[in-house]
Design a protein that fits this description.
alpha+beta; 3 domains; 4-stranded antiparallel sheet; 32% strand
Length: 410
């Protein structure tokens, strides 16, 4: 007896197989599409973010230069008089009518010490000795020139001190309320005797008479101890002792500022190169309108201050000094903060695009493209200077030069 097997339709198996094939095909299409999309994305990214480079160039970097400066005093002369007097006198200031800030001119009285004047005389060769009739030299000519500029004349301005010079000096001293001092001058009356020689038959001469002793006399003169010489004809009193002040052996009784105030500030070496002597600059101070000035002095390089006691140690660089207009300086005490600036200063400097600088705020560096095609970029640390128009100056290029290629940040 034969057993019959149950009938299983083949159509179900075929259908299941076909479904499996379709699912596998769909998965392949999806996977292929995804991979193609990723590949396309990477290629697009490469195309959108290509490597951008730039070359180092010498460019004219133009920017405003500003230096923090201050009002500084002009040169000063300390007055240290020669105090004369014995044990029965006190070295005191007996007249003082000037104060700090007063102007004193050639021929004027500075002050009085122990009843004697200190007269200001300006310019010329150094006065180093007392002068009287008969003295000659360059100092005589300098004294006569100052005397003439003070308004006293009647003498020739030359190297000889004459009676006319003495008379004019006496007038100057008298105008200040004093007589010229006098010094002894021994004057011999000359011999008054006859020869004692005898001759035969001659009447004997009377005994020779001895010449009388020289009679001491005095003559006015100009004492160097009563003169204060300054380089110019005017000065500003920076300090002066008051009435009745005691004077020590090495005590300055006054300080005279003989040069005008200036503005001085420390500039970097780069900025100093753009500020040579004669450059026009602007001065600005609180409460003042800007004033035009001129650079009068540029110092040699000065190293940075290392004194820990300084409240505001200065960086290294060069000191820039500018003149101060007289009308602008009024009311500005020594030490007043001033901004010294010059607009649009230009100079050729090695520079790169600002976008090539990486980590500019902390430790700036550049990525320099290697000349070898299979080598990657190398890092070069740099120091930055001024910037303008998208370029920045390289104060320290790390050995790079014009033409070197750097990577630019996209």
């Amino acid at each position: 007896m034969n057993a019959e097997l149950p009938f299983v339709p083949h159509r179900r198996r075929v259908a299941a197989f076909l479904v499996t094939v379709v699912l596998v095909g769909v998965a392949g299409v999806v996977l292929g599409s995804t991979l193609a999309s990723q590949t396309s994305t990477v290629q697009s990214a490469v195309e959108l973010n290509p490597v951008v480079t730039a070359e180092l160039e010498n460019r004219a970097i133009s920017s405003d230069i500003e230096i923090q400066a201050a009002v500084t005093a002009g040169s000063t002369v300390e007055v240290k008089p020669v105090v004369q007097g014995g044990a029965d006198s006190l070295p005191l200031v007996t007249k003082s009518s000037l104060t700090a800030g007063s102007l004193v001119s050639n021929g004027e009285l500075l002050l009085e010490i122990m009843g004697r004047p200190l007269v200001v005389l300006g310019g010329g060769s150094p006065l180093y000795r007392s002068l009287g009739i008969g003295d000659t030299g360059n100092d005589v000519e300098a004294f006569e020139s100052a005397l003439s500029r003070a308004g006293y004349g009647g003498f020739d301005i030359d190297s000889e001190f004459t009676e006319a010079t003495l008379e004019a000096a006496s007038e100057l001293w008298e105008a200040r309320g004093y007589d010229l001092p006098e010094r002894a001058s021994a004057t011999s009356l000359g011999p008054s005797y006859t020869s004692s020689a005898d001759s035969a038959g001659a009447t004997p001469a009377p005994p020779a008479t001895q010449a009388p002793p020289a009679v001491p006399s005095s003559q006015p003169y100009v004492s160097i101890t009563e003169i204060v010489q300054i380089p110019a004809d005017t000065a500003t009193v920076a300090s002066i002792l008051p009435l009745a002040a005691s004077i020590g052996s090495d005590t300055p009784v006054a300080a005279l500022q003989v040069g005008a105030n200036t503005v001085r500030g420390r500039a970097s070496v780069t900025d100093a190169d753009a500020l040579p002597i004669g450059t026009s600059v602007l001065l600005r101070a609180a409460g003042k309108e800007a004033a035009t000035s001129v650079v009068t002095e540029v110092s040699d390089f000065i190293a940075a201050s290392t004194d820990a006691n300084e409240t505001a140690p200065q960086a290294s660089g060069r000191d820039i000094t500018a003149s101060v207009p007289a009308d602008w300086a009024e009311g500005l005490p020594i030490g007043t903060a001033v901004t010294l600036s010059i607009a649009g200063a230009e100079q050729l400097s090695l520079a790169v695009p600002v976008t090539a600088v990486r980590d500019a705020g902390a430790a700036p560096y550049l990525l320099v493209q290697s000349q070898e095609t299979d080598a990657g970029p190398r890092r070069v640390d740099v120091a930055l200077g001024r910037s303008s128009d998208g370029w920045v100056e390289l104060l320290d290029s790390g050995g790079l030069s014009t033409g070197d290629v750097v990577l630019v940040t996209p």
